[in-house]
Amino acid sequence: MKSIFITGTDTDVGKTYITAGLAITLRKMNIDVGVMKPFAAGVKQKKGFKSEDVEILSNSAKIDDPEELVNPQFFPISASPYTAWKKLKIKPKIPLILSSFKKLSKKHEMMLVEGMGGTMTPILKNYFVTDLIKDMKIPTIIVTRSKVGTVNHTIMTVKMCQKYKIPIKGIIINNFDKGYPINQLKKDLESLTGIKVLGSIPFIKDMSDKSLYRIFKKNIDMKLVLK
């Protein structure tokens, strides 16, 4: 069973909650799913995991993997790994990321890897998220939003993945903006990119396992996710 890299058209498109929802759904389908966020950044939490995103993912998958494997590098600054490197003098460690992914892949039937920002978020000067996905040798799911302008961002993301020869399993629309009619957006994205829309997720108030499982099972084509 293939692992999947969850990338986005931009930052703050909801990659963490989409990844969490997929993890919960796969787990309830009796699939041993592991999670990973290679790079995380922001304000360090006082308790538990350094990153809130990593904590959300780990709780969703119900794993007990060491934090240093799930999130090999944390930067205490809201910035790309490249910017964090320049400001904090903490160089992103690509070999560490890849070795951690390999170890986790051996422990779990399937892995969900959440990226940082969009596909061209810089990690090193000439190494981007697209390079990381390619080095992991796994396909991606693109998370996009529903505000006007999303078609432009989605097409650019698809074209960059195609340029790097990254297989795209599909697109998930995170419908929390409610600016673009979903049925029309789905038709437009599929027509313009040739990539299947796996489904759309409405704004979610209840983030419990039960709620996320119900919503994802209803709104996402899990057969295509697992294909």
Task: Explain what this protein looks like in three dimensions.
The protein has 227 residues and is of the alpha/beta class. It has one domain: P-loop containing nucleotide triphosphate hydrolases (Rossmann fold, 3-Layer(aba) Sandwich). It contains 10 helices and 10 strands. The strands form 3 sheets. It has a 6-stranded parallel beta sheet with strand order 2-5-1-8-9-10, with helices on both faces. It has a two-stranded parallel sheet with strand order 3-4. A two-stranded antiparallel sheet has the order 6-7. Strand 6 and strand 7 form a beta hairpin. Helix 1 packs parallel to helix 2, helix 1 packs across helix 9 and helix 7 packs parallel to helix 8. The longest helix has 14 residues. The termini are close together.
